[in-house]
Design a protein that fits this description.
The protein is mainly alpha-helical. Helices cover 47% and strands 0% of the residues. The relative contact order is 0.05.
């Protein structure tokens, strides 16, 4: 396996690489190897997760007022009765 030194990498780019590696729970080296493989077309890029809402018609969808009313109506369930836990 060959080694490669990258010269001229600015501090902002390095900080972004470190942040992204930390977010992905990977080393900077592993991240850079994957990015190079993807850039060269050797590894497929996974598409970003998308939010789907095409089943709203079947499952229903609350208005803002309905959501507020539900939260208000169920708020007492968030309170614990200490006497029940003695």
């Amino acid at each position: 396996m060959a080694n490669l030194s990258i010269r001229g990498l600015d501090a902002k780019a390095l900080a972004e690489l470190k942040a992204r590696a930390a977010k992905e729970d990977a080393s900077v080296n592993t991240l850079v190897l994957r990015l190079i493989a993807q850039g060269l077309g050797h590894q497929r890029v996974k598409p970003a997760l998308r939010r789907h809402d095409d089943l709203d018609v079947l499952a229903g969808k609350w208005t803002k007022a309905e959501a507020v009313a539900f939260e208000r109506a169920t708020a007492p369930f968030d309170k614990l009765d200490p006497k029940l836990w003695d």
